[in-house]
Amino acid sequence: MALYEPPAMLKVSLTPRLVRLLFISAASISLIPLVSAGSLPTGGTWSPPEQMPSWVTPTAFVILIAVYALIVFELVHRALAAALGGIAVVVALHIVGDGPDLGTVVTWIDEETLGLLIGMMVIVDVLAKTGLFEWAAVQAYAFSGGSVWRLSFILCTITAVFSAFLDNVTTILLIVPVTIQISKVLDLEPIPLIIAEVMFSNIGGAATQIGDPPNIIIGAQLSEQALSGNEMLLGQGITFVDFIVHVGPAVVIAFAPSFWLLSKLESKGLSGARHRNVDLLRLRYGIKDVKLLKRSGIILGGVILAFFAHSAFHHPLLTVATIALGGAVLMLLVTSPHHVEEQLEAVEWTTIIFFSGLFIMIGGLQYMGLIDSIADGISNTISRASPENRLMVAVLLLLWVSGVASAFIDNIPYTATMVPVVIELASDPSLGLSLGPLAWALALGACLGGNGTIIGASANVVAAGLAEESGNDISFNRFFKTGFPIMILTLLTSTVYVVVRYAIDWEDTLLPTGSLTPAIIIGFMMVASLSTLPHVYGLFSSSTDETEAE
């Protein structure tokens, strides 16, 4: 029996012709970047009125809150909620006067984000058919020696690593069904394992540009290409490598403390031992297609290498979207050149529609003055601080507001709303703030804050849906009991990190190491975190809750 079958609510039945049309359209948009990713349209025929009526900005706020409410309370599907928000802002702009035409509205959609998502979904679907993820889960059990805690540690580590280089929603879609099957074999309650995997999916996903949807949005809209029209931010665009260099250390530092706290919060469900015949498990859940694995693995490795390389070679066509789409096309060509419909149907078109509606809504809200209003509020708060403390106030405000807000609001629309605010703050010469620290604070807050509640991140919702289908309901309170404390802990470790690295002017201190001080401190914190992992791994080694061997 197949271990992985996408839930019905995540699949959209499309004709092969329509699927091909959508895929080709998305690829064409990404390969021909007529409009810079994440920037507002400059080449359209429409321009907003010089002065908006007083009711426009409050109306924009009502639209935003209404869409968030629809998403949070699941009154309608989030894709429909985003589409309604996009329609509402376009209608509001037409009420003001001559609103934007369809050609202008389409340019508000960030083709970089959509291209990346479509490409990676296709690649991962092909990989799933090889049995790679099932094999990894069995290997995790073999390495655990039967210890439930060690099994959870290994599964969470695998999830975190996969989530760093693959979208964490996709990783959860693959790893959770496998976890449910293994839990049945081992006679375990799957909920603690699923919650643990979600925690580390969000933590690991924060480390790279492609690991978490908020980072995808931040990376696309704050890239050098996207900011090319902003004279204040020239040369401050962020790259794929920048995410690893600036956010990766914070993730490493948070790793061991998060595992330790998880062991305390889920001590009952993640302790004890289970003993099964590993050879039988390997026969049942082994690699299904070695030839396909070799081909797809080489292509995936090439795609990941290209992600790193594109940061050093600036070219309009060399973007994360074109790399992902190019890798997807190559993988389809090599693996199934005559049967592409099945792979293309694996794309979560509802997610693509959700992102499209969201970008249209945010583009309209920006013209309606909401983004400027939010930026002014944050800017006023920051400006009250002394010049030498403004950066510290800014990064801490963005980190904690983003973290708490993302716990109760899906972090995707929240990030899409806040990225223009970050651009406004960094573009204000009176504040004197650099773009990078603000972007990293937003990324850490949005990604780590998603662990706070079951509705905080898309990966959480997907995991809960998969668990419910298997007869294991994860309630809001059940998730909150573990997720919120871990969120607070990771935000605290991130606070120390951003303050040490960005907020303190070490040149003005009396320390002899000067500018090297933050690197030394952060290096020590990373080493300390990594060095404690062996102890955390063997935390429950003395537990002997045995079951009958099979």
Major sheet summary line: none
Q: Number of helical segments? A: 25
Helix content: 55-70%
- Shape, per Cα inertia axes: globular
Number of strands: 0
Strand percentage: under 5%
Distance between the termini: 20 Å
**What structural category arises from helix and sheet content?**
mainly alpha
Any low-confidence stretches, pLDDT <50, length ≥5?
Answer: 1-43, 542-550
* pLDDT averaged over residues: 82
The number of domains: 1
Q: H/E series, N to C?
A: HHHHHHHHHHHHHHHHHHHHHHHHH
Computed CA radius of gyration, to the nearest angstrom: 23 Å
Give an overview of the whole structure.
The chain has 550 residues and is mainly alpha-helical. The protein has one domain (32-40, 53-537). The chain has helices spanning 16-31, 56-72, 78-96, 102-106, 111-128, 132-144, 148-165, 168-186, 190-205, 213-221, 240-246, 248-265, 278-284, 290-309, 320-335, 341-345, 349-367, 370-383, 390-408, 411-427, 435-449, 458-469, 476-503, 517-531, 533-537. Helix 6 (132-144) crosses helix 8 (168-186) and helix 7 (148-165) packs antiparallel against helix 8.
